[in-house]
Structures are given as structure tokens and as C-alpha cells.
Write a structure and sequence with these properties.
The structure is a single chain. α22 links the parallel β30 and β31. The strands form six sheets. The protein has an eleven-stranded mixed β-sheet with strand order 7-6-14-8-9-13-10-12-11-15-16, with helices on both faces. A seven-stranded mixed β-sheet has the order 28-29-25-24-23-30-31, sandwiched between helices. Strands 17-20-19-18-21-22 form a six-stranded mixed β-sheet, sandwiched between helices. The protein contains 23 helices and 31 strands. It is of the alpha/beta class.
């Protein structure tokens, strides 16, 4: 049995089934998965039962059967110790507390009553404590805690749900919890004291499974604003943890799919639309300014469950880090870095092997869309499509933002957890550590290294150095080709499948023509692509400054669309004209005309920034990535547009341009007429979605595409994604959209690995 089959209670599950089906033999973990020897009994029924209803955290990728000579060494069925071979199997992600453990910590009759580190084979820390494979206690950060006789008895009993649960612990022998202020431990019940501080408006640092959180009362506006001030995070939304599902239902409009996702063992943060009738004073307005969604999660560890029950209300639960830096995981590190932010720490002494941020997801058109792949999902393996099994091993190192790396071999891939933005030196240091960590942990020896085309990405330079160090070829993959390949591979598009029409709506990516791409229509296979169309290029006015200051993109769009003199006349004496009059527009136009620090870009992300700026959203400067676009989406959410803004398609040499000139003409007319901003946003979203889908269908027909693939960071926009999917419905082609691989740059490495593997197979 290959797949996610170790550390999930698979062997005792097999042991129990063997008795039911009269099987003699044994079961063991080995370097490739779980090996079962069956000498007697109903083998077909036995194997069928294993595949039909495996343990909750298990995922069986393949089952291989072969005849076995001889007879069982002894009657009955036994569990054999791990066989440490040179081959490696996968590692299991951390899993949220199961119902049995939750009930146990609430039961005064149980010995783990109110114990913050209860777990079993169906839940608890896995990857966050793992130091080596195969997965056993000696290979985890739990090896420092010697089991007491009671835990040892549970651990060794195949009939117990804690059989070989490597993090097994209890108050007598396991990790302990304490509250400290200014480095001094506070006597008494740590949970009760922490809850009292939170209810009093204090900010706490809380050590969880994959790192520290910063927490405060989500209903206390003063506490939320104080946290923003201390963390220097003016507007970026905070994630929330609720005590239970009823608390979320009071504040969010929940679908059955969203409720299921919140209760999933991965326990991600789920983006949910705010309810229309949120109780007054129950949530602070400063949690997510300008947005229509909030990120919610349920308590996923006993520690969180006990704390949330004591507080009995939602808490802010945001990453414990300085702005832009990696999350703190060590007690001393937290004291140094987070000490100035917090009034106290809720600490424990179980070491964390690696940083794992909370995963972030939303449900769009009935499917999960993972925005950040981290705790609960990484490092679960991903199957590569048919035709990739014979490809050589590849190490792919992704991009600069939302970085992740990917290791592939023998038809499977491991996409790492979210590693942060590599513009920050500390995040790049963590990226380098992760590359070594994954390579060692999964015993991966690449024969090819893959990297983005951009020569100045830190990830690219790291890949170049790795290829030279290992003496293996380096494959460079264009940014948006990698996005499309990522969608193809996640959806199982065969290695030798027909070309797809790829639509990559994104921020920025280095183009082979020296311009900056970001709104692309590609005829793509895994091994190559042809650019058929793009969003009409405009200057990236001021270079990198345009990625931070939306007004620059507005000027570039209007100047390109109609000329600045005409644009000024159209704006008249409006509030927008007043805002622009305070900016150095004349100087900026000189830069654009002379192409000084103003490369051409087809970026869809910068178009969203420009439209947002036209409505006054984050006009001067973004305080976090995607701010203007997210607020623009929020404005249009829930509004049924009476019409769609028009876009044109024009010939431009050997490709076509999706031209927003008609859109700008209509938008400025609406602004002059006093049209509500929400209606303007809704018309823009529908216009872009409709134009994108129409052009995609036309191009797909021209190239006889086998499918249409959608990827790129702009497809994180639920409103746009839903509308594009609706416009493509009934087109007669499969639509390949991303689910558990992020459509943003967090999925780039997966696409790079697929491209590099396909090129090696040619």
C-alpha cells in the first residue's frame, strides 16, 4: 500500500480487519509504504475492505499485489516493527484534533482531562514534529519525553486508538503548558489566566503546532487597533478563531461545503462572506477594513480548544511574526521578536521542527481553492498525470513571492509548505533551510533543477547554484507557462495530451521578449507554449513603485487608453481629478514616454490596481499585497450588474490584445454620472470575465485545444473566478482550474517540475 499510510493508524486498522477476514500473516511499515503478507483467509474481501474505508488520515495511492510462496511463520496476524530501508515514503501533514480526543479533554473522568497535548493516531502533530523518515517517536521532537507506563501500554496495544501514535503524551510524561509575563512563569491554571487577560483586552503570544500566533479579543476594537499598531499592519485582514461552528454561523454566511472544509482534518482558515445580520458589537470593525469576507478557523489542537472554551468568543489568531518576517517557532526566538508585541505568552515545551503557517482556502463554484498551502496539507504527495512516471527526479524552486519548492520523482510530487516572500532576507534564509530539509527528509537526488526565467529572483539564483553544485542541467520555465502547467498537472492532463488554451491572469512575470507579462492566453503543452494573446500592454510606470502605488497604474492606463489631455477633460473637477492633481503626473508621463524605468506590462493585477485607484481604493499606496484588488472585489460582491463593461480584441502583429480602452470610456462615464462604486466594480468584473471567456473559447477553437486551463494569482478573486467559470460553462471543453495547488505563485514550483519532467521525456 503506497501513499499517505504511515503515522495514520494504518497498521492497527489492518490488524483488526485481518481478524475479521480470517487472515494469517503480518503488516509492517517499510521505506515504500505499508507491506502486508496474507497467507490465508478471504484476501480479496480483506483488500477490498482496506481500500473502501481506510483510516481518516490515510490516502492510498496504489495497491500492488503479488503471489507469495510458503505459509505464515505463526498462526494469527501480527504487526511487525518498521523496516528501515533506503527507499523513502511520504510524510503525513498535521491533523486537527479528532472528536474522540476533544471529548476526552472535556471529561473530568479521563486522565487527559484539560490536557493541552492530547492526540491519537487519527489526529495531532505530524509534519511539524518530524525530523526523519520513517516516522517513529525517535525521529520526532517528542523523543525527549519518555512515556509513562500508562502511555506505553496504550502505545503498544494494537486495539487502542493510540497504538504507535508517536506524539502520545499525558500530564504525567508529556509536554507542559504555562503562562509567562516578562520571562517569569505565572502560577496557576495557564488557560484560565490567559483567557482572563484576553477578555481584558490584552495581546498574547500563543505557541501552537507550527509556530506562534498573536491573539486578542476579536470584539475589542481597542485591542485590535493596538495589535495593528504594534505589528505595523495598518489594514491587512486578521484571521479569526471561533470556539465552535455556532459562533461562526452568527457572523458568516455558511454553505455546506464551507462547513465541511472548516471541519476538515487540515483545519484551514476559510474565507467566508460576512453575514448580513452580525450582532452589534460582536466583532471589531478594524478586523478587515474594506473587505466583505473574514478568514475563520476552528480550534485544531486541544490547547486552542481549551483556550477558546475559556474565552467563549472569537479571537484574532494571526501569525506571530514581525511584518514580512517568518513566523516565530522557538520560545527564545518568540521572546526576542514578539516580546514588544505581547502582554504575555502562553508557552509550551514541545519543540517545533519546522515553521508551518495556517493554510488559507475558500470555496468557489462548489470547489476548494487553496490560497496558501501549509499546515494540514503539506507535505502530502500529489500524483503527476499519466506519462510522467519514467521522468527523472526534478527539484523546482518556484518564484519570489508566496514561495514554495517542489520535488518530483516516479510520478509523484511533493509541494512544500508556504515559505514566504523571498524579498525578505530572513524568509530567504528559511527557504534555503527548507530546500535542504526536504531534500534530506525525502532522500531526493534531483537529476534536473527547474527555475523561473527571471534572472534576479532569489529563487532563480538559488536554483542556478544548486544545479552547478549538483552538476545537473538547469531548466528555465516562463512564469505563466508554469502557472498553466500547474493547473494541467493538478487536473491529471496527460503528459502527451493535446495542447490546452491556458489563461494566466496574474500580477507580474518575466517574459522572454523582455517585457513584463501578466494577462496571457497561451497555447500550451507541458514542454512548450505559444503566446496567442495578452492584455494590452501599458507602461509599468516607475518600475517596482507601480506595484505599491495604484495611482501610477491608473495614470498609465488612462494615458495609454485616450491620452492624458482627453483623460483630464473626462475627469473634470471630480474628486479623482483632485487626487491626481496632487501627484507628479507630468514627470511620470515623461518617464513612460521615454521608457525610463517603465517597462511594458500586460499585468492583470496592475489593471485591477488601476480600476481600484479610480474608485479611491488604496489610491496612494498599498499597505499589503492585493489590497486594492481585494477591496474592489468586496465592492462588487453581491451586486448583480445591469451590464458588463466592454473590452475590445485588436490585432497586434502576430498576437491579439484584449484591449480595455472601451472599458475605461464606460467607467469614466459612470464616474461622471455618479454611479455607485459597487455597480462600477460589478460591471468591471463581469466585463473582464466575459471578455476573457469569449477570447479563450475563440482561441481554443482555433488551435483545436483539448481543454481550457485557468491559473494565476488574479484567479484568487472569487467573483472573477466564478464569472469566468460560468461564461465557459457549456463550451464543450474541460475547464482545468486549481484546487489544492494554489493558483498564485505558491503553485509555480509544481508547474515548473511538470514542465522540466516533460522536457526530459522528449
Amino acid at each position: 500500500m503506497r501513499g499517505q499510510v504511515q503515522g495514520v493508524g494504518f497498521r492497527p486498522f489492518v490488524w483488526r480487519l485481518a481478524a475479521e477476514f480470517g487472515i494469517s500473516g503480518d503488516v509492517r511499515n517499510d521505506g515504500e509504504g505499508v507491506l502486508i503478507r496474507a497467507f490465508a483467509g478471504d484476501v480479496d474481501g480483506f483488500v477490498g475492505a482496506i481500500k473502501e474505508n481506510p483510516p481518516p488520515l490515510a490516502h492510498i495511492d496504489t495497491v500492488e499485489r503479488a503471489p507469495l510462496a510458503g505459509t505464515a511463520v505463526q498462526p494469527g496476524f501480527s504487526i511487525v516493527e518498521t523496516d528501515r530501508s533506503s527507499a523513502r515514503t511520504g510524510a503525513t501533514p498535521d491533523a486537527a484534533m479528532c472528536p474522540a480526543c476533544h471529548a476526552e479533554i472535556l471529561d473530568p473522568e479521563e486522565r487527559r482531562h484539560r490536557y493541552a497535548f492530547a492526540n491519537c493516531t487519527h489526529c495531532g502533530p505530524r509534519f511539524s514534529i518530524l525530523e526523519n523518515i520513517p516516522y517513529d517517536r525517535a525521529s520526532t521532537t517528542m523523543r525527549a519525553f519518555d512515556m509513562c507506563p500508562s502511555c506505553r501500554a496504550e502505545y503498544e496495544d494494537p486495539a487502542d486508538r493510540r497504538f504507535h501514535a508517536q506524539p502520545i503524551a499525558c500530564p504525567d510524561c508529556g509536554p507542559r503548558l504555562w503562562l509567562e509575563r516578562d520571562g517569569v512563569e505565572i502560577e496557576g491554571d495557564a488557560i484560565a489566566a490567559a483567557a482572563k487577560l484576553l477578555r481584558a483586552g490584552k495581546i498574547l503570544g500563543i505557541k501552537g503546532i507550527g509556530g506562534f500566533h498573536l491573539a486578542c479579543d476579536a470584539a475589542n476594537e481597542d485591542a485590535v487597533r493596538l495589535l495593528r499598531e504594534r505589528k505595523r499592519r495598518p489594514k491587512k485582514p486578521f484571521a479569526l478563531m471561533a470556539p465552535d461552528m455556532d459562533a461562526i454561523r452568527c457572523h458568516a454566511a455558511l454553505s455546506p461545503a464551507e462547513e465541511a472544509l472548516l471541519n476538515d482534518p487540515a483545519a484551514p482558515i476559510v474565507l467566508l462572506e460576512k453575514a448580513d445580520d452580525i450582532p452589534a458589537g460582536s466583532l471589531a470593525p478594524a478586523l478587515a477594513p474594506g473587505l466583505s469576507v473574514l478568514g475563520w478557523m476552528l480550534p485544531y489542537s486541544p490547547l486552542h480548544a481549551l483556550l477558546m472554551a475559556a474565552v467563549d468568543g472569537p479571537l484574532v489568531m494571526t501569525s506571530g511574526n514581525r511584518s514580512g518576517e517568518p513566523q516565530a517557532i522557538g520560545n527564545d526566538e518568540a521572546g526576542t521578536k514578539l516580546g514588544p508585541f505581547v502582554d504575555a505568552f502562553l508557552m509550551h515545551d514541545r519543540p517545533i521542527a519546522r515553521r508551518l503557517d495556517d493554510s488559507v482556502a475558500r470555496i468557489v463554484s462548489g470547489d476548494i481553492r487553496l490560497l496558501r498551502r501549509a499546515r494540514g496539507y503539506a507535505p502530502a504527495s500529489l500524483d503527476l498525470p499519466p506519462g510522467f512516471k519514467s521522468a527523472p527526479p526534478v527539484a523546482a524552486f518556484g518564484g519570489e513571492l508566496k514561495s514554495a519548492l517542489c520535488l518530483s520523482r516516479a510520478g509523484t510530487a511533493i509541494l512544500s509548505h508556504h515559505l514566504g516572500d523571498l524579498e525578505d532576507a530572513l524568509s530567504f534564509g528559511e527557504f534555503q533551510k527548507a530546500a535542504k530539509d526536504y531534500s534530506r527528509l525525502f532522500d531526493h537526488c534531483p537529476q534536473i533543477v527547474a527555475a523561473d526565467l527571471h534572472p534576479d529572483y532569489r529563487a532563480t539564483r538559488f536554483a542556478e547554484a544548486e544545479a552547478e553544485r549538483l552538476g545537473v542541467p538547469l531548466t528555465r520555465v516562463q512564469h505563466h507557462h508554469a502557472h498553466i502547467a500547474s493547473a494541467m498537472a493538478e487536473n491529471g492532463w496527460p503528459a502527451d495530451g493535446a495542447p490546452v488554451l491556458g489563461v494566466a491572469l496574474d500580477g507580474l512575470g518575466y517574459g522572454p521578449d523582455g517585457t513584463v507579462w501578466g494577462g496571457e492566453f497561451l497555447a500550451a503543452t507541458y514542454s512548450g507554449f505559444t503566446r496567442l494573446a495578452c492584455l494590452r500592454p501599458v507602461p509599468l510606470a516607475g518600475g517596482d513603485a507601480a506595484n505599491r502605488e495604484p495611482w501610477r497604474n491608473l495614470v498609465a492606463q488612462l494615458d495609454t487608453a485616450m491620452g492624458w489631455d482627453v483623460a483630464q477633460k473626462r475627469l473634470g473637477k471630480s474628486a479623482l481629478a483632485g487626487l491626481l492633481s496632487e501627484k507628479p503626473v507630468a514627470n511620470l508621463r515623461v518617464l513612460m514616454q521615454r521608457r525610463l524605468n517603465s517597462p511594458l506590462t500586460s499585468s492583470t493585477g496592475r489593471l485591477f490596481d488601476a480600476v481600484g485607484a479610480a474608485l479611491g481604493l488604496a489610491f496612494d499606496r498599498l499597505t499589503y499585497e492585493g489590497e486594492a484588488a481585494m477591496e474592489l472585489e468586496a465592492l462588487g460582491a453581491g451586486i448583480s450588474p445591469d451590464r458588463a463593461y466592454p473590452f475590445a480584441v485588436v490585432e497586434a502583429g502576430n498576437i491579439r490584445h484584449l484591449d480595455p480602452v472601451p472599458m475605461w470610456d464606460a467607467l469614466l462615464t459612470d464616474l461622471a454620472d455618479g454611479m455607485p462604486p459597487g455597480q462600477i466594480s460589478a460591471r468591471f468584473h463581469l466585463g473582464l470575465a466575459r471578455a476573457t471567456a469569449q477570447l479563450a473559447k475563440k482561441l481554443a477553437d482555433e488551435i483545436s485545444a483539448g481543454a481550457i486551463a485557468l491559473s494565476g494569482g488574479v484567479f484568487q478573486n472569487a467573483l472573477l473566478m466564478r464569472q469566468v467559470a460560468e461564461e465557459l460553462d457549456g463550451c464543450g471543453l474541460p475547464v482545468l482550474a486549481q484546487r489544492e495547488v494554489p493558483a498564485n505563485d505558491g503553485g509555480l514550483a509544481f508547474g515548473q517540475a511538470a514542465v522540466a519532467a516533460a522536457r526530459a521525456l522528449r
